[in-house]
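The following block was generated as part of the benchmark described in Methods. Ligand: 2'-deoxycytidine-5'-monophosphate.
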Amino acid sequence: MISVAIDGPAGAGKSTVAKLLAKRLDFMYINTGAMYRVVTLKALENNIEPDDVQKLCELIDSMDMYFDGNDLIVNGVNTSDKIYSPLISQNVSRYAAISEVRQKLVKVQKYISEKFNVVMDGRDIGTVVLKNAPFKFFLIASPEERARRRYNELVKKNIEVDYDSLLKKIIERDYMDSHREIAPLKKADDAIEIDSTNLSIEQVVLIMEEYITKN
Ligand code: DC
């Protein structure tokens, strides 16, 4: 099986690019952020705090997860419309920092990559989950550009937001994701770094696609 790993900070465009790349390569797209988000959603629904590791593990064991295109289906229910709410975004880092949660989700991610050709995006894909992936990319963009993209996205949805507070949140999330003890966000030594600050989605996908087909 062939795996493509894409890591990088929040808002760098990983999921948009990974989705398109998977389509072009006819690979399965695995959005690992969605998996951490869905655990957060279910934990909040069941009032399970991040430090209640036993309950969290039981919860994850009771979840049957699979990807249907870009959607994550859990116990037969499509979770896509629930997992991107501000409440989940605000809480997900706390649950993603728990080692037992990561171990369980990483196991599922590895299992899928053994069965299918995948484009998998996240924070620790090239460094932990798919250490031996033949293709690894680390996608970055300046915090200002990432805040600007998020701002435009929300304005399009008629959601009122303040650019400065978005920028502040992005910088805070970068700090949390890259300074946590377990599997912090870090470029794998053998990953190719792509700075998308001044590139379109199409340009980024093309760089990746060309690299993969040539190697
Ligand atoms: O990519 P995203 O914003 O949907 O990810 C949600 C959160 O999950 C983010 O705060 C970091 C965490 N995450 C992680 O720790 N490891 C991954 N492989 C993917 C996401």
